[in-house]
Structure prediction request, 258 residues.
Amino acid sequence: MAWSTREVADLAGTTVNTVRHYHQSGLLEHPERTSNGYKQYGARHLVRLLQIRRLRDLDVPLAQIESMDFGGETPATALLAVDADLTVSINRLTRARAEIRAILEGTTATDVPSGFEHLAGRLSSSERALMLVMSQLYDESAMADMKKMVESESEDAGVEFDSLPPDADDATRQQLAEALAPQLAQHIADYGWLTDPKAHQPKGSRVTQETLLETAVELYSTSQLDVLARASVIAAELAAESSNPTSKTIDRGNHDDR
Prediction:
């Protein structure tokens, strides 16, 4: 009994184009042809097709199937690789389902990065948006530190910053900047990479800086951006003094001599 390409494809539950593709990739040997040029598939071709389809149903990649020996032994290496991939997928889907359930129950938020859900209530909408953008610009280690920073920050200063009017006067801006600076300086002291974050920016320093600047300009008012700039300068000075206290003592001594 011999079958045509269409017949063997139907028997294997696949298509003619798939059979031809398997021929081209070397997965399926070419059958003999009759004198008039028609292909004649036999039982061994059908068995091979069924074996290939069985493995494809298990998500074994074609590239791995090509290297398999179909002599009756289980293709353990390829199946172990697929099993590992499935484990990763199952864990990811399990986490996703847990987050979806929490969202539906109203105990978490969708507008913060994963792991920041418990902090959503203390972050303004602008801060949540900024954190989402940052999660795409910094690696997991940096984002873990970011979470710790948010957890340690005082909510009072944040409320005052969020409510700062666009036309806030210079004195108000300076006062708020001075209030924010010590916490920023502490972050610099606790997380040294903040002064040179390149190693934590997988998309590169230029892309990261440009994206953050564009995002901040859209999220914050002119007065808020001014406060952030002032606070950053003050924090850098405080951090420098903290790391080199002797210089401050010497400066004071020189001032007294005058």
Remarks:
- The beta strands are 32-33, 39-40.
